[in-house]
Amino acid sequence: MKLFTSVHDVANVPAIVKEALDLKANPFAHQELGKNKTIGLIFLNPSLRTRLSTQKAALNLGMNAIVMNIDKEGWALETRDGVVMNGTAVEHIREAAGVMGEYCDILGIRSFPSLTDKEEDYSEDIFNKFIKYSGIPVVSLESATRHPLQSLADLITIVEHWQAAPSPSERAGVRPKVVLTWAPHVKALPQAVPNSFAEWMCKAQQEGMIDFVITHPEGYELAEQFTPGAKITYNQDEALTGADFIYVKNWSSYHDYGKVLSDGEGWMMTQEKLKITNKGKVMHCLPVRRDLELGSDILDSEDSLVIKEAGNRVWAAQAVIKGILEGL
Ligand code: AN0
Ligand code: CP
């Protein structure tokens, strides 16, 4: 693997899920693979999970990991071409990325969207410039439109919990129903997490691993390229009926780009709503706003997988970095 920007960079999705679960069972089996290799983790935005889990994954593979919060600690970057740099930007992305390529064997980049310019965000201009000018393999730590390490960890979590409980024989040959449900938020958030989750779940559905349903209020339709084969409904109750995994996430509007269209009254996930599911387990990528997106009655209960899900970020990152190291 030379790049990890979306599910399309993965040749075999069930195989990478299995690889991640094997790494979880045996984390230090490949410590020689990363010896004397360096991964640079560059954050243009805040992070807790992605930063710590990816660093830990690299260390488990014997790599050196260097981390930079470039938004706070680096020179202000100019990302546009053809501009005279007589403003506040000190350094151009061409030089900054080129230099990172000199120091590292693999680069991880987090770069959120502006949510003001849909065309620019969806062209992945900044992320693609890091790929172009660093000249080394790049892993997405969440780009403007996708968060593939999160989505892989989500799929790992679904597969592992479906296989394990309540009894493997009962579930043999049965596909879990996975529901992505929009939730309220006070801020305009990117579509990256739901785009990416949908893209991975649609692929998992094609592979016969799950059945996938998306529910959201009118106006929050995701870009169609991310949802091939998904069932999409405005009726949350209909979506939740019989659900085995409920993935809760807010996102801002794609069509009315970056806008919060309503306060989302009634869309928060609660224990009461779980009653119509199939003893559904609740997931969220975190960070989560308690009692706004998701009820604390769920977060503090056995129905929540959010901590285990975040734990699986390590194995997702380790499987991806291992795949890239093998191709170096
Ligand atoms: C970000 C988002 O929704 O993309 C990061 C999630 C991993 N969330 C927030 O900004 C709260
Ligand atoms: N889920 C996730 O990516 O969390 P962070 O933003 O804290 O990295």
Overview of the structural elements:
Helix 9 links the parallel strand 8 (177-182) and strand 9. It contains 14 helices and twelve strands. The strands form three sheets. It has a five-stranded parallel beta sheet with strand order 1-7-6-2-3, with helices on both faces. A five-stranded parallel beta sheet has the order 10-9-8-11-12. A two-stranded parallel ribbon has the order 4-5. The longest helix has 17 residues, at 148-164. By secondary structure, it is an alpha/beta fold. The chain is globular. The site of phosphoric acid mono(formamide)ester has 9 residues, from helix 2.
Offer a concise description of the structure:
With 328 residues, the chain is an alpha/beta fold.
